[in-house]
Specification:
The complex is a heterodimer. The termini of chain A are far apart. Chain A contains no helices and eleven strands. By secondary structure, chain A is mainly beta. Chain B is built from no helices and eleven strands. Chain B has strands spanning 4-6, 10-14, 19-25, 30-38, 44-51, 56-59, 62-67, 72-77, 86-94, 101-102, 106-111. In chain B, strands 2, 4, 5, 9, 10 and 11 form a six-stranded mixed beta sheet that branches. The chains are: A mainly beta, B mainly beta. Chains A and B meet through β5 and β10 of A and β4, β5, β9 and β10 of B.
Chain lengths: 113, 112
Amino acid sequence: ETAVFQTPNYHVTQVGNEVSFNCKQTLGHDTMYWYKQDSKKLLKIMFSYNNKQLIVNETVPRRFSPQSSDKAHLNLRIKSVEPEDSAVYLCASSYNRGGAEQFFGPGTRLTVL
Amino acid sequence: GEKVEQHESTLSVREGDSAVINCTYTDTASSYFPWYKQEAGKSLHFVIDIRSNVDRKQSQRLTVLLDKKAKRFSLHITATQPEDSAIYFCAARSSGSWQLIFGSGTQLTVMP
């Protein structure tokens, strides 16, 4: 039963374009995350958002920015995509930030031509 | 920062046998160790976790062992079934850190 929703499922775009991905959770969780999963299935945390507090992984390029309207939504914007941004972007949520099970969405696959 | 190494990139077992996936971590302050499963074409879902105040946790056919001295933890699956076939990711988080650091994943194949 899906409780973390992501749109779109797939997106193909060209280098330099701006893209935006949406994520919504219906679990009433306080914390949401964005992860990047590359072609080798390696997972890297990008952002965490909790009680209007955003924490950024310092390795994430500045062209990436999360946007949240409330605790149930955390969108991801990429200002000017580059080929290395091709990946699956996974949104997740958890009850809180400390040691709680994370629930993942189905992912958005981005292909940059 | 924390690094998590997952030693087996692939693992094949026969249905009914046991499977063991091993991970090591570097940060002695790590205190939370979850495991996630990713079936083909699907997203991750949580399977089991262990905290540093215990060294063993079991849930049905899954057991997690934690050796804090060796900074090693492992997932044991008994009586494997074809539906256990998936990529399994271990992860670790240090106390006071917000980041869950994942291993590189182990593709488990259970052969009928």
